[in-house]
Write a structure and sequence with these properties.
This protein is of the alpha/beta class. It has helices at about 10-20, 40-45, 65-75, 95-105, 125-145, 160-165, 175-185, 215-225; strands spanning about 30-35, 55-60, 80-85, 110-115, 120-125, 155-160, 190-195, 195-200. The strands form three sheets. A four-stranded mixed beta sheet has the order 3-6-4-7, sandwiched between helices. A two-stranded parallel ribbon has the order 1-2. α2 (about 40-45) links the parallel β1 (about 30-35) and β2 (about 55-60). The protein is globular. The two termini are about 35 Å apart.
Length: about 240
């Protein structure tokens, strides 16, 4: 979370409610990424009331990628089989989490939400953003050559053992594509969960994601590397595809 004071409590309570109905051990790890509003105070108050909630504070804003890496480290140290990621603005519905759990039970390595196939949809998002996203995903999925229709979707679950082998470096949302690049070498099985994406509410701060030339480069360089089988610079991958 970064400056999500207006929606932090509703997000955390809704997710913890869903997790409380699952039969498996689970926790909600919320990374407060150097927020300058009342997000930290809200999370600290909630952590005393919600046993499922774990709060980690970054003293300064380090970016989306760093927040994910902090969450991955926690999931690995706590011996969770999977880490499921979702944004903190409730544009994704926590009610979809059990559908990811079903795929986890089936043993898939990477489970991606999809807006663009199998009944997924987008609601309330500006048309120009949807068109750019669709075009980018059309290109990315042909370069990755993976059974994933919505490569840029940040709502996903990945085996913690695989995430621990990824030396992720991106600070921005491009880490989602970097993660899928590693997965194209490390993962054996992929699954999709159709979801409905909505827009941020008016009382929330505007999204920090903007389309600029460097964004397209940051996103597309990873599917291009995967297409040409340029292996990640990581010792854990060795010399053969796993």
């Amino acid at each position: 979370m970064y400056n999500e004071e207006s929606g932090a409590e509703s997000c955390v309570r809704r997710i913890c409610e869903v997790l409380g109905r699952l039969p498996h051990r689970s926790e909600l790890v919320t990374v407060n990424d150097g927020s300058r509003d009342g997000t930290a105070e809200t999370l600290n108050r909630l952590s005393a009331d919600l046993p499922k909630l774990r709060v980690i504070h970054h003293p300064a804003n380090r970016g989306y990628g760093a927040a994910l890496r902090t969450g991955i480290e926690y999931a690995a140290e706590a011996s969770f089989d999977y880490a499921l990621f979702m944004d903190s603005d409730l544009t994704d519905d926590p009610a979809d989490i059990p559908r990811f759990v079903e795929k986890m039970r089936d043993g898939y390595d990477v489970i991606k939400a999809t807006r663009y196939s199998n009944g997924g949809e987008v609601s309330g998002v500006p048309v120009y953003r949807v068109m750019i996203s669709r075009a980018g995903n059309w290109i990315a999925r042909r370069l990755y050559r993976l059974p994933i229709a919505d490569c840029t979707n940040g709502f996903r679950a990945v085996r913690t053992s695989l995430l621990s082998q990824m030396e992720l470096t991106e600070r921005t949302f491009a880490v989602i594509m970097e993660e899928l690049y590693y997965s194209s070498f490390l993962a054996r099985t992929f699954a999709q969960v159709p979801v409905r994406l909505t827009n941020r509410r008016e009382e929330q701060r505007p999204t920090s994601f903007v389309y600029r030339p460097h964004v397209f480069y940051d996103y597309l360089k990873y599917p291009l590397k995967a297409f040409f089988r340029v292996r990640p610079q990581s010792a854990v991958l060795g010399g053969e595809k796993k």
